[in-house]
Amino acid sequence: MMSSSKNPCDIHLKAVISGESALGLYLGLSIILAVGRIRMTGKPTYEDLERRIKQLELDILEYQCKNKVLNEDLIREIKKRRRVEKELKQVSYGLGERIKELNCLYNISKLRERTDFSLEDILQAILDFIPPAWQYPEITCARIIFDGYEFTTNNYKNSSWKLTRDIMVYSERVGTLEVCYLEEKLELDEGPFLREERNLIDAVAERIAKFIEREWAEAEIRKHRNHVEKLIKNSSGNISGKTNE
User: Fold this and answer.
1) Same domain for 54 and 1?
2) Which of the residues 38, 153, 169, 186 has the least number of beta carbons within 10 Å of its own beta carbon?
């Protein structure tokens, strides 16, 4: 009858290769190859096998340590990359918003060249430039109240989510500019509005005031010109009358 005693190296081998991990499989295959090489040389000593197993265990332990360090570095790199991508996305979004605001101010400044526009035309055009410059153009509306008149965007409705700015001419309040959201949005710097949108409505109100100042100045010039022309005409008439006498 064959001896039923179990070789401790075989037990160790079975324990290693029974694992489902890649490391266990690697160790098991390495041991099998080592045993095969020893048997082929005709020197199947347990000491050689044990020495090889211990060396393999040390190699695997070193591999696990290196793998752990690599995994930790990889995790840190992934987190860093996600953070950078998030920051870049925020910066890109912010730049997009600033470009919209600059386009609004640029379009308003171009109205100075429209000599064929009345003040009413200019105020209405300014209102139409406002919604595209805000964070949510599709739900943005605006209104200007000036000199007893009201100018609005086509979609204007009175809303509780609004920014307002007085229109000041020669240190006197002559009107109001309002920008409203038609739907509730998350709270930001000033209600649902960004700090930059507060700065924008202030800038737009100042430009409206400049247009009004220019209109009033031109109206005053026309008034004085008409007065002077009337005086000249009357003076010419008087001179002609005296000459005829």
Assistant:
1) yes
2) 186
Residue pLDDT, tens place only, 9-32: 454 444 444 444 555 555 555 655
Residue that terminates a domain, selected from 81, 113, 145: 113
- Which of 102, 113, 114, 145 is CA-nearest to residue 127? 145
3-state secondary structure of 177: strand
Which residues, at least 6 apart from 1, have a Cβ–Cβ distance to it below 8 Å?
Answer: none
197 close to 138: Cβ distance less than 8 angstroms:
no
Residue appearing with tokens 């347990």: 46
What is the residue whose two structure tokens read 């000199």? Answer: 147
Is residue 133 in a domain? yes
Q: Mind listing the pLDDT tens digit for each residue in 42-83? A: 555 777 777 777 888 788 888 778 888 888 888 888 888 888
Number of helices (H), then strands (E), belonging to the chain: the values are: 5, 4
